[in-house]
Amino acid sequence: MLEAVIHKKLRDFTLDIALRAGPGEIVVLMGENGAGKSTALNSIAGLVCPDAGSIRLAGSVLFDSGTGSDTPVEHRRIGYVFQDSVVFPHYSVRENLAFGLRARHKPPAVIRERVDYWLRAMDIEVLAEVKAGNLSGGQKQRVALGRALATEPALLMLDEPFNALDTDNIRLVKELTRTFVTGMQIPCLIVTHRMTDCRDVGDRVCVISRGIRKWEGTPEDLTGCSCAGEEP
User: Fold this and answer.
1) What CATH code would you report for 2-222?
2) CA-based, 20 to 30 A from 1: which of 23, 41, 78, 192?
3) Distance from chain centroid for Cα 46
4) What is the distance between the alpha carbons of residues 57 and 20, in angstroms, rounded to a whole number?
């Protein structure tokens, strides 16, 4: 379970939002550019420090302005897939998948086992020794998703994960995301601009405008609603 209350003064407005996502639930964040969606994710990840609020994940306090608690990024057990399929271009696909596990000092046998599993799960076994910089956009996104999940996170977050992908890869990444969020029973937050993404993978939608929650409901309720103000 993720429960986050974030208050952060930004340049043009204040981000003041509460987010909640249960095990196996995908919550989609929508809204205009600069509405505060990515700042919300970065606050949960520990890359941005809120001015006030609290963030709790799987029974642990990650941040609490009242007590001064602020768990370091590397100890937050969050898998984060950034915008633009961020991979380490000079590392092989295998090395990319192993990166987070090595950073957490997992035993070599565990790293090999998990990397082999995620190579199969993401259907990228034949690319294991290929430098990640030579991959297509869809292949990079599968590497990034596998790397995020390989550490067995308590939360998965994806920021505009379907940008610059062709139709087949969009469908594949959506299917993989849904399969593993459900299978691992972890909460998931996805930032997107497209209502089709909400309908395809979302359980719940939260529309953010200038830092506040403007609307929340199911993807079905969002159909025909002009509040999202984004692409269909």
Assistant:
1) 3.40.50.300
2) 192
3) 13
4) 10
